[in-house]
UniProtKB/TrEMBL annotation:
Keywords: Cell wall biogenesis/degradation, Lyase, Signal. Residues 40-58 have a biased composition (Pro residues). It catalyses: Exolytic cleavage of the (1->4)-beta-glycosidic linkage between N-acetylmuramic acid (MurNAc) and N-acetylglucosamine (GlcNAc) residues in peptidoglycan, from either the reducing or the non-reducing ends of the peptidoglycan chains, with concomitant formation of a 1,6-anhydrobond in the MurNAc residue. One of its GO terms (biological process) is peptidoglycan catabolic process. Its EC number is 4.2.2.n1. It is an enzyme of class 4 (lyase). GO terms for molecular function: hydrolase activity, hydrolyzing O-glycosyl compounds; peptidoglycan lytic transglycosylase activity. This is peptidoglycan lytic exotransglycosylase. Transmembrane segments: none annotated. GO terms for cellular component: outer membrane. It comes from Novosphingobium flavum.
Amino acid sequence: MPGKGAVGVFRKHALRLAPMVLAAALSACTVIPHAPPPPGYPAGPAPRPAPTPTPTTPPAAGSAVSLGVQPGPAPQGLAFAGARPAAALRSFIESCKVLVTRTDQSGLTRPADWKPACDAAASWPPARAAEFFASQFESARIGDGRTYVTGYYEPEIAGTRAKQPGFAVPVYAMPPDLVRGWPFETPFDQRAGQPPLGRYDAGGKFLPYYDRAQIEDGALAGKGLEIGWAADPVELFFLQIQGSGRLIGPDGTVVRIGYAGQNGLPYTGIGQVMRDRGLIGTGPGQYPGSMQGIMAYLREHPDDGKALMRMNQSWVFFRELTGDGPIGALGVPVRGQVSVAADPAFVPLGAPVWLVTDREETSGLWVAQDTGGAIKGANRFDSFWGAGPTARTIAGGMSARGDALLLLPKGTLARLASAGSGTTAARK
């Protein structure tokens, strides 16, 4: 989410991978197949597989370990009691099933490091949650620890399962012809890693997938991909940016939808474009640089607004969700005022995070359970606020700065220091 305010809210459908483009990172997302070429299309040699990381692989440049890790204050001195500890404990427990098995991209932890805290959490009384975080973890500062926090939410927009008067904007499921493949002109020796997303035309030529303008103009119409119908294209545009949401029918029926995939085309944050053009800001005649201000401009200038939205060629496809809460990149529910999105190169997904910022709402205890296409770098977080008008207002204007600490299993810093990972010895 580039920029501030609403510009910062644009999570680039990370979802949650992020890409939303984190499609591959989302355990909840649809896996896009590597389709075989049509008959007569030369496949060429198989792509070279990426190396499989192991616990002994040195951390890559741009990871938490390579940036530098310093011990923070003793957790017993942090004000956990007033920082949603019971809710954070619940989310941490849900993260444990992944924490104890997943390779940590940040280079900070190993799956076994989390087992003692996860075992303790399973039977820990929620009423004593603050004591859990104070006793099971040590704090660490990544780089200088200075943080920037934006917000996201689960939109609720007017929508129905079936098309009806007033509900004519299609919400599409993943199309079966969206696959990964290599364009014919790509030399075989350059076909390394994951092939790009696209589609094969009738003649077997691999092309980029349909962009936003083509889809809005009907490229997918009549293919039976509609899982719902929205009333307002602007609201659907922002729901795609957030990555999940709820369609609310006139009779109160709720259809929860979540990120299923993306068309493989680049994301453009229109908030930054509008700021560069002087359309939003604090000057005379400018619209506020919040999500609400941007939406007001798009509605009051429908032709220019449509053109602006089409600058974002990325299109997000959805699937219907059941169960408790939208699913984040960790594969577990994200929860309002508890979950944050982070860059997994700098934060172990599932780890508790302690924030002290210039916005009271974001100060306190969080759990990193999601990612975002624009949430990159150390100490960059996107706070999740749930659903409803209050969540929408807070997330739409969230821009906070302050300090961040990671809570890591006890002994992590000493192990990193002894391994010569550029980490100062843990505080005694």
